[in-house]
């Protein structure tokens, strides 16, 4: 199909889970609505706490706020249309709206990978070089790194977006997925889409696994450093922090590899429903639990919440007539 003899589709339709029966649509819509509200409230609460408490304005918490904003952005790009599809059977998206969603989905995915890399770098410097850490990793340095991540992530998602903008879409327009992304748009391209998919795949693997390589390296160095600590309490505290981050990193990286690799391995097949469920799990579960894992396990934030609760209780008692 050449650029001169096809009519480009004007809109796409989000199908969601193809095997889901209509009687379950409302239940699924409520589930994703609850997931979205919980994710946004949890992450924005962290941002508010950071903004109000000057004691939290440290490099580690700058990363947490960056991750919270990224998670909120991803959920806002991905979920409202999926909810509308199951609540009001409104799954249609304009061509350029779909491309915008595809760009932002991969943008926030790339951004999260870079944020996890920054987080690993911060922990590596803090544990392996504790004396140099305060001089090397200042608030200004971390803010600069964070802004760099937010800008550079557009480059990686932009490669696939530009590819799709130039590809011919002339026939089917049903997206067998929860949102527009590379995996769902590629089968709808007229003609040979392998070259474009390979470019998108190579970009995705680079932005995912180059940071992962450094993260693994940093964790090995951290473990070696921790084993040399004198006190058992210090070792347990550090291992606890690393285990928590390791769990989130595993959820983020491992399922992505299987989803992106299935087209290259004939024996590794996934049904559309399983692929969508796996994608939604690794995309939406970390944003949901990140505020609880990274914040409620942090002593400083728990103390702030306790102080707020006590302050509210005291205010309420003062308002009660005696």
SSE map:
Elements: E1 11-14, H1 25-52, H2 59-87, E2 92-94, H3 95-128, H4 133-136, H5 139-166, E3 174-175, H6 182-185, H7 194-227, H8 232-261, H9 272-296, H10 299-319
Parallel strand pairs: 1-3
Antiparallel strand pairs: 1-2
Helix pairs in contact: 1-2, 1-9, 2-3, 2-5, 2-9, 3-5, 3-7, 5-7, 7-8, 8-9
Helix content range of the residues, please?
A: over 70%
Q: With helices defined by DSSP (H or I, 4 residues minimum), what is the helix count? A: 10
CATH superfamily heading: Rhodopsin 7-helix transmembrane proteins
- The name CATH uses for the topology is Rhopdopsin 7-helix transmembrane proteins
Low-confidence stretches: none
Name the strands of the widest sheet in spatial order.
2-1-3
- What's the pLDDT, averaged over the residues? 82
Per CATH, the class reads Mainly Alpha
Oligomer: single chain
Strand content: under 5%
Structural class: mainly alpha
Tally of individual domains: 1
User: Using only CA atoms, what is the Rg?
Assistant: 22 Å
Main location: membrane
Subcellular location: Cell membrane
Organism: Lates calcarifer
Domain G-protein coupled receptors family 1 profile: 42-294
What does this structure look like?
- The mean pLDDT is 82.
- Helix 1 (25-52) packs antiparallel against helix 2 (59-87).
- By secondary structure, the chain is mainly alpha-helical.
- It has a 3-stranded mixed β-sheet.
- It contains 10 helices and 3 strands, in the order βααβαααβααααα.
- It has one domain: Up-down Bundle (Rhopdopsin 7-helix transmembrane proteins).
């Amino acid at each position: 199909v050449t650029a001169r003899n096809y009519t480009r589709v004007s809109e796409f339709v989000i199908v969601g889970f193809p095997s889901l029966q209509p009687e379950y649509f409302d239940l699924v819509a409520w589930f994703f609505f609850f997931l979205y509200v919980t994710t946004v409230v949890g992450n924005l609460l962290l941002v508010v706490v950071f903004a109000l408490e000057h004691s939290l304005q440290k490099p580690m918490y700058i990363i947490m706020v960056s991750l919270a904003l990224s998670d909120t952005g991803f959920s806002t790009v991905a979920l409202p249309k999926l909810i509308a599809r199951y609540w009001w059977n409104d799954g249609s998206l304009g061509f350029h709206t779909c491309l915008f969603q595809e760009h932002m989905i991969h943008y926030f995915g790339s951004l999260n990978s870079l944020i996890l890399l920054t987080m690993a770098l911060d922990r590596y410097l803090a544990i392996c070089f504790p004396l140099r850490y305060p001089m090397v990793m200042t608030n200004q340095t971390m803010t600069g790194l964070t802004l760099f991540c937010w800008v550079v992530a557009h480059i990686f998602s932009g490669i696939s977006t530009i590819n799709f903008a130039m590809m011919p879409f002339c026939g089917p327009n049903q997206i067998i997925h929860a949102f527009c992304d590379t995996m769902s748009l590629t089968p709808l391209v007229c003609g040979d889409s392998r070259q474009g998919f390979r470019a998108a795949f190579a970009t995705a693997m680079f932005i995912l696994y180059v940071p992962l390589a450094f993260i693994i390296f940093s964790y090995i160095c951290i473990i070696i450093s921790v084993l040399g600590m004198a006190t058992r309490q210090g070792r347990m505290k550090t291992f606890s922090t690393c285990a928590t981050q390791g769990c989130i990193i595993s959820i983020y990286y491992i399922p992505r590899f299987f989803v992106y690799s299935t087209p290259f391995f004939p024996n590794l097949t996934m049904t559309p429903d399983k692929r969508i469920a796996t994608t939604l799990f690794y995309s939406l579960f970390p944003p949901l639990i990140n505020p609880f894992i990274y914040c409620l396990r942090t002593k400083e934030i728990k103390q702030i919440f306790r102080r707020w609760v006590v302050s509210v209780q005291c205010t309420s008692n003062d308002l009660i007539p005696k």
